[in-house]
From TrEMBL:
Annotated Pfam families: TPR_16, TPR_19
Protein name according to UniProt: Tetratricopeptide repeat protein
Keyword Disulfide bond: no
Keyword Acyltransferase included in the entry's annotation: no
């Protein structure tokens, strides 16, 4: 499961209430029971609960799916009716559950947390669906704390979520991440192993499981910066992610994955200097990969001629090696147009033209290549042949 900004879809609410929706928690105030002056003298707790259920159905019909909010009139009225029922019969588990379900569906997480706690006190043997809904509340409180940079609180909420729902992949994932960022590497490894067991197809979980095993070499500051940067990249915040990977690499220059991610992202963003810095550092570490060496050459050349021109040239070269020489010639020409000082692109443009027996065109291209790079003996040799038409 790829960690993202996730307010869980409350499918469990559908099982219990007939439909589900949730949203992030705004600045809200809890509804209060309707004044007794507004109730008929014969209205009972059961009637208030029935009114709450009726208002729930009306709210779901009136508002777009997924937009439930405690500040919407019908939802506020439903919550107030549920509060009235609880006030009239404070020990009734059904009314306590109804109130908790409403606050969960509208994403009023702190109020929902208190409501579920009250329900569990009245119904200590509650079933799995209720525990899973309460776990969803803890998860959202945890994620909110995480985004507010309150990792200790986040970890507490995620742990509570796992107590309520041991099979929650989101809670296992984020409990592992908070442990990793806090430098609790043994705990992080245990939690990532748990999350991978629950969701073995998630490659991101497997990736972070491996990171947790090696994170001790980098330290909490670098690991935390890397983890946050990874989340930013997954959310599409590429500039912010690049800064995070660079921060991780500065904190731990031996952090190969931080250097590698910074380099990749810098190339995506067209930041050739940042890419060159990252791949230079990466290739100075033990055992750089072939891809690391390739990307260092790419970044070095891009810094001189521009990334677009280099990428165009390399794409043309791949077409040439694949045997599509017509497309290759067009690509080499485009690279020279993107940067007329790109000697290598001129040389290969000359080659494709020469092989097509376009000697005049080849001579033109080779002339440019030799002018830009007088040490290019191969281009000088074929220039003479092209000029001779052979």
């Amino acid at each position: 499961m790829t960690p993202t900004r996730p307010t869980l879809i409350l499918t469990l609410t559908a099982a219990l209430l007939g439909h589900a929706s949730a949203q992030t928690e705004p600045a809200q105030t809890a509804p209060t029971p309707a004044p007794t002056s507004l109730l008929t003298q014969t209205q009972s707790a059961a009637q208030a609960a029935a009114e709450a259920r009726d208002l729930i159905l009306k709210a779901r019909s009136a508002y777009p799916a997924g937009s439930a909010n405690i500040d919407q009139t019908l939802w506020k009225q439903a919550a107030a009716a549920a509060e009235t029922a609880v006030s009239a019969a404070p020990g009734n588990p059904d009314y306590l559950k109804l109130r908790a379900q409403i606050y969960t569906e509208v994403g009023f997480w702190k109020q929902a947390e208190s409501a579920w706690a009250a329900y569990f006190r009245a119904a200590p043997a509650a079933g799995t669906p209720e525990s899973q809904m309460a776990a969803t509340v803890q998860y959202n409180l945890g994620y909110s704390a995480y985004t507010r940079n309150m990792p200790d609180q986040a970890a507490t909420f995620f742990a509570a979520c796992l107590q309520l729902d041991p099979n929650s992949v989101p809670c296992a994932t984020w409990a592992a991440r908070t442990a990793l960022e806090a430098g609790n590497y043994t705990q992080a490894q245990t939690l990532y192993a748990r999350a991978v067991t629950l969701n073995p197809a998630d490659k991101t979980l497997t990736y972070f499981q491996g990171l947790a095993q090696s994170a001790g070499r980098y330290g909490p500051a670098a690991t935390r910066a890397f983890s946050r940067a990874y989340g930013d990249r997954e959310a599409g915040r590429k500039t912010q992610a690049l800064a995070g990977f660079q921060e991780a690499a500065r904190s731990a220059p031996n952090f190969t994955e931080a250097q590698r991610e910074a380099g990749r992202l810098a190339l995506e963003l067209g930041n050739t200097q940042a890419a060159l810095d990252a791949y230079t550092a990466l290739n100075a570490l033990p055992s750089p990969t072939a891809a690391d060496k390739f990307n260092l050459a790419l970044a070095t050349e891009a810094q001189q001629y521009g990334l677009n021109a280099v990428q165009t040239y390399r794409a043309a070269y791949q077409k040439y090696t694949a045997g599509d020489k017509t497309a290759a010639e067009a690509g080499f020409l485009a690279a020279t147009q993107q940067n007329p000082r790109y000697a290598k692109a001129w040389a290969w443009l000359g080659r494709t033209r020469y092989e097509a027996k376009n000697y005049a065109g080849a001579a033109e291209a080779y002339t440019q290549a030799v002018t830009l790079d007088p040490t290019d003996k191969s281009s000088a040799y074929y220039l003479k042949l092209a000029q001779q038409g052979k």
